[in-house]
Amino acid sequence: MIKKRIFSCFLSFSILIGLTGCGEVSSVSETVSASESVPVESVVSVIEEPETVEEEKEVIWDFDEYINEEWKSEQRKKGETTVYAWDEHRQTVKQRLVGILENEDISTLSEDDGLYKAIVMYRQFLNAPDEKEKTTESVKKYLSKIDKIKSLNDLYDLYKDESYAVNDFVLKFEVNPDDYGYNALWFVPNSLSGSIKETIEAINGKDTKKDGEAFLDFMEELGYSKEKALEILGNAAKAGELIDAYWNNPQIDGYTYYYDPEKLEKENVTVPVFDILSSLNAIGASEDFLAEKGCCDFLNTMFIEENVPLLRDHLLVKSVFLFSWISSFSKETEEEKDLRPAALSFLTLNAGDVLTKEYIKRYIDEAVLTETAEYLKEIKQAAIDTVYDAGWLSTHGKELARRKILRMRDVIAVNEDTDDLSNIEISDDTVENYLAFTVNRERFFRTQTTKEDEGRQVYKADMLDVNGRFYPEYDAVMITAGLISYYADQGDMSYEEKLGFLGRTLAHEISHCYDPSNMAYDGDGYYEPWLTDDEQAAYDEETEKLRAFLSGKKDEYGNEINVNVVMNETYADILGLKICLRLLSEKEDADYETFFRTYAKQNASYYSKDDAEAILKDSHLPNKLRVNLVCGQFDEFYETFEVSERSEYFIPKEERIDLFTK
């Protein structure tokens, strides 16, 4: 059985403008045509009666700088290297969570309460340095079983233990939806090459931002000499290279295949994959798993006796990374180290549902949640109306497109399926509890593989982030508690501000159901192409025009964007803004200036030249382009703001992208 994997995962300036000089604007004076004969008294009259002269508009070269230059200047003064407008609220969310975890009186909570367990884990985490000897001994005990691995059978036995399986990144499986309607196991070995390489470079002094000696010191505390620690790292790196080779295999053809015991036996795979999965209660209703072509060859090549040291040390290094928070992984003294960020990160990952519910209870009024749900309905209807305008969609095609939105599920503030931590037993051993939280999360994910069709639910979104997302496999749009609280904290907003702040995000996420990667999913969340050949050709013509438009575009440092990386997000940006403008057009005396200003402010960002490479790997356009190139697609923008035709961000009318065009 074969299924294709679909991942849901402007003329140049003639004057060089420095960073601090961007945002400068010039004025255009009204002139009198030389071909006209104008009496002197008429000129005097104009001078005496200035109200008869049209108000002059500022000519804009760069709308992003025009709106956000002052904010960016403040970030540069703070020494920021990469910062986004919503980062401040992300910090606010974290501070509020820390307040809950540090100030809650747990004597008022039941020991069976998930919040009680999360708070105990958090406080044990922070107190670990005070009990470092005890904690280090617990880690040593955990690692000792890995050290004893001498054969493949030893390794397989350890893989069957949940507390070690969570650190097994070679025979690694994740639960994610497939195209048929159930949450399936996906074989996704992770090389850890990036982390291992960074550690080795730090040790060798090639990465001055990292303290390589700290890793060696921690390994020494755990009983490994520096020579042995380097040997272990080297073996782990070799295992990582074999995993990277699997993913870079030219035989991988972009498809995924279902593997069951019979197929593994036919391919002479001796690794007891299904025995291991069965011991972990990880086999779902389908009794198979999904993997790339070449999976069997990888298993046969990787799991041989000669590779046991590599496999063992890969597991050991991952385990050491897991416990690095108790080490001296810093040049700071232990008294100066702040473990709160690491503790909070761990709990938002492993106790996120419990923390989210408590956060909502304290910081989001029920009326705001209701308002968000109602607003989402309004945006959805505008999206349907926008799609219905498409001249290239047949009547039947319009109904199918409409169905995707009508059946779209709203996941607002909390996951559809949540974990209350009821399966965790708290002890006085910090390491034991740490592993219990990690194992519990994996167990919770594995339960999803038993759910078919209508049982599919969004279950592992980070609802405390300030974000939104569209899940094509569920046909669901997700709006986080973090984003809703960001909106709620703004206080009273005008219609235009609300549309530019929250509405544009909702419209963006809804628009993803039509982007090039997700268009072929139907209204039930299945990959089932539904456009006719003629409709597909018209759709492709629109997307190819967008691709051609983006081709060759560069960020503010002259780096060319990767069109393939940013296509889907840019598509959703443009269609989402079109949906918002449709709503705005229906309002009497609509304030387009406030709307566009709000949109630009919410997309404000600053990053240094050194961070450009990382920014360009993101699936979104760099935010300067996200402001200028997206706003620049619409007539309403040019009618509101005077953008110079000589600006590199001015888009001639014939080049503008109109998705679902009439």
Key features?
662 residues; mainly alpha; three-stranded antiparallel β-sheet; three-stranded mixed β-sheet; 50% helix; disordered N terminus
Question: What's the Cα radius of gyration?
Answer: 28 Å
Give the helix proportion (percent range). Answer: 40-55%
What is the mean pLDDT?
88
Order of strands across the main sheet: 1-7-8
Low-confidence stretches: 1-54, 330-335
- Helix and strand content put the structural class at mainly alpha
Largest sheet: 3 strands, antiparallel
Per DSSP E runs of 2 or more residues, the count of β-strands stands at: 13
Strand content: 5-15%
How many helical stretches? 27
User: Distance between the terminal alpha carbons, to the nearest Å?
Assistant: 40 Å
Coarse morphology: globular
Structure characterization notes:
The protein has a domain of 191 residues. Helix content is 50%, strand content 7%. The strands form five sheets. It has a three-stranded antiparallel β-sheet. A hairpin with a 4-residue loop joins strand 10 and strand 11. The longest helix is centred in the middle third of the chain and has 23 residues. It is globular, with a radius of gyration of 28 Å. The N terminus is likely disordered.
